[in-house]
Amino acid sequence: MSYTCIACRVAFADADLQRSHYRTDWHRYNLKRKVAELPPVSAETFQQKVLSQRAEQTVDPVGPRFCKVCRKKFSSDNAYSEHLKSKKHKELEARQAEKDAQKAEDATKSDDAVELNAEEEDDGMEVVEGEADEAIEVTDCLFCAHSSKSIEDNLRHMAKSHSFFVPDVEYLINPKGLLEYLGEKVGTGHACVWCSRQFTCLEAAQQHMVDRGHSIMNYDDKSAEYVDFYDYRSSYPDFDGSSPQTQGEANGDPVAVANDDTETDPDYVEHDDATGELVLPSGARAGHRSLQRYYKQSVRPSRMQVAHGQKIERLIRQYRAIGWTSSAEIVRQAEDKRRRDKYTWARLQYQDSMRLGWKANKLQNTYRRQVFLW
């Protein structure tokens, strides 16, 4: 790892040399030039400027005299010459000479360091370790240094420790790809998963997400950032999971996509070139009689599909144990609540109407005796 100075465009072997360089006049001079949008100067050029400035500050035969070491001004040559012979001036001059020698030594050490290319330093403002630019593994936590044995353990840890839940997990088809994308976004891009704010290092991004409570995916139906990892076709009312035509449309198969004219034609029959079957307008598929032995077989689903479904079910159970509810359950609970509220409101309205009718009714406790004349 190398330590650099952006203002002077030099590199150092250790941090001590870098800190000592920051205290030199050469570094301060280059900082002022950087503020003025001027290129930095090398150590040799800076030493030449210092020597030339000292030569210009020699005793001027005309005008007041000034001692730079003691920072005193004299109005005559005699007073100035007497001051130069004084003991106090000689002591301060010796101290200044020692300081100048130390600064010259520091400048020499800086000259021995490797100078960086100016064009490369314009793009990067700081040196970052190569490991910080690597993406976070799918088994590592996005918000801390915890490492798990599997993806399920990692999701369980992030849910319990950081309240990170995958939205619409019942429609998730590629959990590994989603974690790889998030790991690259946080590890390589140093960005927050919620506000997408970028930071200089991974630790700063993780600390921001933990402190601000941004350990949640900014998932919106209008956003296409995570659309490749979800499949919402099973939530459609007209979805048929066994229909290969729908599967072909999702995979971008041009054979499975029908034109507008053919969809409106009730007598249109489509021919599947891959299987040699005829697809009727009702969706039924007719095959050749020579393949009837294969149609009678009950093919089991692939192990990958079964394993994926079991992982999603286990993940949903874990989320529910913590207190998570899916979007479908939220909609169903809202419908149940609306139905209960409607019944409760009707019951209260009936009771209020009965109470109002009872108060409006004038009931007599005494009656006049009826006298009948025969």
Helix-strand layout with pairing:
Elements: E1 3-5, E2 10-12, H1 15-22, H2 25-35, H3 43-56, E3 65-67, E4 72-74, H4 77-84, H5 87-112, H6 118-123, H7 151-162, H8 175-187, H9 202-212, H10 244-250, H11 260-264, E5 270-272, E6 277-279, E7 285-286, H12 292-295, H13 303-322, H14 327-360
Antiparallel strand pairs: 1-2, 3-4, 5-6, 6-7
Provide a descriptive summary of the structure in words.
- This protein is mainly α.
- α7 runs parallel beside α13.
What key attributes describe this structure?
elongated, 374 residues, mainly alpha, two-stranded antiparallel sheet, 14 helices
Can I get a quick summary?
The chain is mainly alpha-helical and 374 residues long. The protein is built from 14 helices and seven strands. It starts with a strand and ends in a 14-residue tail after the last helix.
